[in-house]
Inverse folding.
């Protein structure tokens, strides 16, 4: 039981995840300090109302400062998110995908060879002309199938037989001769 837990903990994915959480937390502190110390004061200088002490926003009820809607903090949080997302993408995701594609692993599924594919490959290795012979045989079979299909189209009617109109009934009126 403890061996399985040890194997789980020592897998690369868990260690990578722990490292990412630690680095992400430290980076979030840096970005928050940047946005609070530099971006927020710049946003607060935008003229919005005569009372700029609270920052960019408005009061829902003008007499109560507790009803202040702080738009500057929303803008700062959005900028904070965009900075973190861009850094994570360009510093972590993009290089990882590049390394994964170079190493031959990652998001793409590897094709599993079937028995027929393996046997064909072995045959081609043993007899270099086998691939050409197989291609010629396949082309001949395709031509025969196309010819059979073309002649079958002429031999069989292409649809139901045409409808035949019924003959009109003749009605005789017998009149006695004069």
């Amino acid at each position: 039981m403890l061996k399985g837990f040890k194997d789980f903990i020592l897998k690369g994915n868990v260690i990578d995840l722990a490292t990412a959480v630690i680095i992400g937390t430290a980076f979030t502190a840096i970005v928050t300090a940047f946005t609070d110390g530099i971006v927020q004061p710049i946003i607060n200088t935008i003229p919005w109302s005569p009372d700029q002490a609270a920052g960019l926003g408005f009061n829902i009820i003008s007499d109560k400062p507790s009803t202040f809607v702080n738009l500057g903090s929303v803008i700062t949080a959005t900028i904070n998110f965009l900075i973190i997302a861009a850094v994570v993408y360009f510093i972590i995701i993009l290089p990882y995908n590049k390394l994964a594609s170079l190493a031959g692993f990652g998001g793409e599924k590897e094709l599993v060879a079937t028995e027929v594919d393996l046997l064909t490959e072995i045959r081609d290795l043993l007899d270099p002309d086998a691939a050409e012979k197989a291609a010629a045989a396949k082309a001949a079979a395709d031509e025969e199938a196309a010819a059979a299909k073309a002649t079958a189209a002429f031999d069989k009617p292409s649809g139901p037989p045409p409808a035949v109109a019924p003959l009109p009934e003749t009605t005789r009126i017998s009149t006695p001769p004069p």
